[in-house]
């Protein structure tokens, strides 16, 4: 009898904290946040920049690594003058809305805005719809301190290499000269050096960056290990180590000159 | 990946057909079930079969629906197996089954959900789960009313109310890899339902 009473009580408690689930494949529940990228950008734009130096965090692949997130947050919050955080995809393992919520709830503790780009794992199951509702468009851009950030879906394998991902036409539009933009930074999940990126599109994709006046760097995740461009590469790129490996990159840009620092926590 | 599917399929077949000898009797359900939530639909309806001589086992087959407004549209087929090891008899009411462990499988029909990741597009082991089939662990508690007058008046042998917690392999992977950052209550999800026995 006691056990039953306890279970009843527990049922009541869990019901109170949203324990009712309709399916692991549901794309949202009544507590799911929406439009988090738009909200992060509003937060970013609401503060008048104090200087011209861009300083942001590049991280990625939080996936199954929830227990590494608090250490990540603590480290980032201890840093000075960080403008925002870019998470370069794979915020889930299984593409479920519950995982996205688990990520979003924890990342709320970051002192600076968090901008989340889509990864291949986030596109599995009903992840694409869940991401679109919770974070927003899969391809989007914003301008901050005169630099345009072009965040885009590079997860070609998830579209069976249909030639549409990454969307080169959209990229070309975004890379056009724009008033008030002196530099361009692209952000994606799968880097072109990976087989998961549509290799047919690589030459055109790279050429677009190479031919853009003021192109600063292309940023990625996915590999879980740090990589950077080598002498001879015709544009700068950076691939961040994963949250699982307790690593991120601090990127600093001034007058289109980029420097970066690996950080471990 | 293949082994995983074979095992899932075999288990469902064994659960569905291996238990009752009499085929005709097998087809007639013992109970009608109506459930809310519990990871098998916003609402689900189904048929329940009592298993074993002591009738402590349950085999339930359900169809569940999640409307668009609740994060769908999803159509879900569920096969549940549970056992009721403990029973408390309550005078004037009936019986309480306080802790009934079980397992169930769901198949979710949706264009985004593949039975398995195609080998033509993803190398072997690239993703190690099925999008459409989900194995779940569950535990439920049930109050079975047989004694109150309205039961007989309604033409029922019994009316049960139950609540059921479940988790699935996605959530359990995330749980075991992240204890204590991810807690049990993050990964066990609730449903409630009624069973009517005619």
UniProtKB/TrEMBL annotation, chain A:
The keyword Cell inner membrane does not apply. Coiled coil: none annotated. Residues 55-226 form the Calcineurin-like phosphoesterase domain. One of its GO terms (molecular function) is hydrolase activity. It comes from the Bacteria. Residues 1-21 form the signal peptide. The keyword Signal applies. Keywords: Signal. PANTHER family: METALLOPHOSPHOESTERASE, CALCINEURIN SUPERFAMILY (PTHR43143), SERINE_THREONINE-PROTEIN PHOSPHATASE CPPED1 (PTHR43143:SF1). This is Phosphoesterase.
From TrEMBL, chain B:
The keyword Signal applies. Residues 1-23 form the signal peptide. Keywords: Signal. This is Outer membrane protein beta-barrel domain-containing protein.
């Amino acid at each position: 009898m006691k056990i039953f009473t306890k279970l009843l009580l527990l049922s009541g408690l869990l019901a109170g904290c949203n324990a009712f689930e309709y399916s692991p494949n549901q794309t949202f529940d009544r507590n799911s946040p929406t439009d988090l990228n738009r909200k992060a950008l509003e937060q970013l734009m609401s503060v008048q920049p104090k200087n011209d130096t861009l300083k942001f965090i590049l991280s990625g692949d939080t996936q199954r690594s929830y227990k590494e997130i608090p250490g990540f947050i603590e480290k980032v919050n201890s840093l000075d003058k960080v403008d925002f955080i870019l998470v370069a995809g794979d915020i889930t393992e299984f593409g479920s809305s519950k995982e996205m919520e688990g990520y979003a709830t924890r990342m709320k503790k970051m002192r600076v805005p968090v901008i989340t780009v889509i990864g291949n794992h986030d596109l599995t199951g009903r992840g694409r719809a869940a991401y679109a509702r919770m974070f927003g468009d899969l391809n989007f851009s914003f301008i901050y301190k005169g630099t345009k950030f072009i965040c885009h879906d590079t997860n070609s394998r998830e579209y069976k290499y249909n030639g549409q991902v990454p969307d080169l036409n959209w990229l070309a539009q975004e890379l056009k000269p724009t008033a008030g933009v002196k530099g361009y930074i692209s952000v994606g999940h799968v880097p072109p050096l990976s087989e998961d990126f549509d290799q047919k599109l690589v030459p055109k994709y790279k050429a677009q960056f190479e031919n853009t006046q003021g192109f600063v760097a292309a940023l990625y995740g996915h590999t879980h290990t740090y990589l950077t461009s080598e002498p001879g590469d015709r544009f700068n790129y950076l691939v961040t180590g994963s949250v699982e490996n307790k690593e991120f990159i601090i990127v600093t840009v001034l007058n289109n000159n980029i420097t970066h620092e690996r950080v471990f926590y | 990946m293949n082994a995983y599917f074979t095992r899932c399929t075999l288990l469902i077949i064994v659960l569905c057909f291996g238990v009752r000898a009499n085929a005709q009797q097998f087809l007639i359900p013992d109970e009608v079930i109506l459930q809310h939530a519990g990871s098998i639909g916003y609402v689900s309806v189904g048929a329940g079969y009592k298993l074993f001589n002591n009738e402590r086992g349950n085999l339930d087959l359900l169809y569940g629906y999640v409307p668009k407004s609740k994060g769908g549209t999803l159509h879900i087929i569920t096969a549940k197996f549970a056992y009721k090891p403990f029973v408390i008899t309550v005078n004037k009411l009936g019986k309480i089954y306080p802790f009934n462990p079980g397992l169930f499988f769901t198949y979710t029909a949706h264009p985004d959900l593949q039975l398995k990741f195609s080998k033509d597009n993803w190398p072997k082991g690239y993703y190690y789960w099925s999008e459409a089939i989900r194995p779940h662990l569950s535990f439920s508690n049930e109050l079975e009313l047989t004694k109150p007058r309205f039961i007989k008046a309604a033409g029922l042998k019994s009316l049960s109310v139950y609540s059921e917690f479940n988790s699935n392999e996605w959530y359990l992977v995330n749980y075991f890899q992240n204890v204590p950052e991810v807690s049990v209550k993050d990964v066990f999800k609730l449903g409630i339902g009624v069973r009517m026995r005619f």
